[in-house]
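Dear Dr. H.,

I hope your travels went smoothly. While you were away I took the liberty of generating a structure for the chain from your last submission, since the lab meeting agenda had it listed for discussion. I wanted you to have the full record in hand beforehand rather than looking at slides cold. The sequence, exactly as received, is reproduced here:
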Amino acid sequence: MCGIFGYIGSKEAAPIVIEGLKKLEYRGYDSAGIAVASSKSLKTVKALGKIAELEKLMSNVSLKGRCAIGHTRWATHGRPSKENAHPHNDCKGRLAVVHNGIIENFEELKRDLQQAGHKFISQTDTEVLAHLIEDKLAEGLFEAVRKAVQKVKGSCAIAVVSKNEPDRIVVARKRSPLIIGLGKGENFISSDIPAIVKHTSRIITLEDGDIALVKNRGVEVFRLSGEKSDRKKTLISWDPVSAEKGGYSHFMLKEIHEQPKAIIDTIDSLVDRRTGSICLKDFPLSDKQLNKFDRVVLTACGTSWHAALIGEYFIEHYVKLPAEVEYAAEFRYRSPLVGKNTLVIAISQSGETADTLGAIEEARSRGATVVSVCNVADSSVVRASNYTIHTVAGPEIGVASTKAFTTQIAVLYLFSLFLGKKRGKITKAKYLRRLNSLYELPNKIEKVLSFEKDIEKIAAKYCGSKNALYLGRGEGFPVALEGALKLKEISYIHAEGYPAAEMKHGPIALIDENMPVVVLALSGRRYDKILGNIEEVKARGGKVIALATEGDLNLKNVDDIIYIPKTSEALSAIVAVVPLQLFAYYIAVKMNCHVDQPRNLAKSVTVE
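The corresponding predicted structure, in token form, is as follows:
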């Protein structure tokens, strides 16, 4: 959840680290800190709040040095405070540690360290690392870190510097993500790719149980047990511009507008448009192997879980296999009935979601085949899965996911068509018609984006609401869930998504003249039922915001209408979610909320 960035090279390190932390602030922003090591000193500066507060304090301190680590925090152990901010130091101020993850046995370790005379100044689990390393520092920084990390249980990605050895950064990984960027005469460490792309396109992704010695002219990777390890160098395909706002007020708005291109890029990475062939080069199963599956389980968290719900419809409709959707956090701690004939689809934007990784491990331990849908190549989810289908959304910086969601749906749709065709459950003519429907989506989303000013005006009417209800049927139900999630994530308005038929089983009691109700009233086989739901809301004084198909003149008893182009019922979710993203965005803007960095949330949930 937290963000780590480090630099070692020939330049002044502090400005580079601060710039890197700003690119990682979506991972945590309740406090921040930096430590700069030189042959003369180790200086640590920490601040409560965002990185701007840290910069103010740094202006009063001389931070000269060519080796530095920094951290932006999302609190787990200990409230947000200057004392609990990272980096943490040892008793004598000789070393500094930054950490992402949770040390599960920290209380036991802390008690032993205190009995040995170590003084703690924070409530964090991280500080035990500083003191564990201090105990072995006479053996050298690398060996001290290696022995300290071996003692901790849980998850950790750490970076350590010392004034005794200012020519190196020692990093280690247990479950939490960490990458090393390879420059010329300089190297970088980071929790995520967006902070590195400006500096280099070459990275090493550390694996669980790795420890690395990072110097300005070289990187050596070892296992925590001590033996040397070869880790392949990977080229990043993201360009530096894609990690910038590009003139938009917020990353979220930019990423909403990037959805047409993201969907085109995702389609073109998987489909030969000349022949209509879906080419899944990372899913090389034979027809015989594909036909062995008798069940599909989709697992994910958050927005990706909503995409999984839509994927369930696709698989049952086009593949004719029973499908079910599981919260990854629940799936991993049950005794799920999966086996060698089960196909598990794990979905994650970042590829580092802790619960999704746990679900993958559980599924594979029971013999299931796991294919992941992921936006980040060489991420932990990708490496843990049997096979992967990549979305091509580019970096998503805004905490509230947008283009990752729509590209995930596009991939699940293509995967369902692929399986349905391979298993003989869909005719060639129907297959090609369905592909053509997908090709049309980017233009339809562009049309929805042209209604942005109208959506902004509607948002202005409801930005004072305390609660909201979102209703949908069929594929519209997951969109209702996602629309409600976007609203509560970034505006802090309580919102709930429901299947429209369930409204009468409880939520109807909440409806009054102060309750806006967003209804997905799109044309299709459930349309008449939705009209009935609208009448029930209006009979109780509720305000109805209808999402309707362009040209629909039947919706007279509603307060506001947002039209979207006519789309096949199966793919309507991709188009319909875009105005709901914009609706949530403009409500949050008008309420002066931190759109890209909503309180208490981080982009990647890398801890349980």
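Two observations you may find useful: The chain has three domains: 3-243, 251-439, 449-590. The first strand starts at residue 3 and ends at 8.

With kind regards,
E. W.
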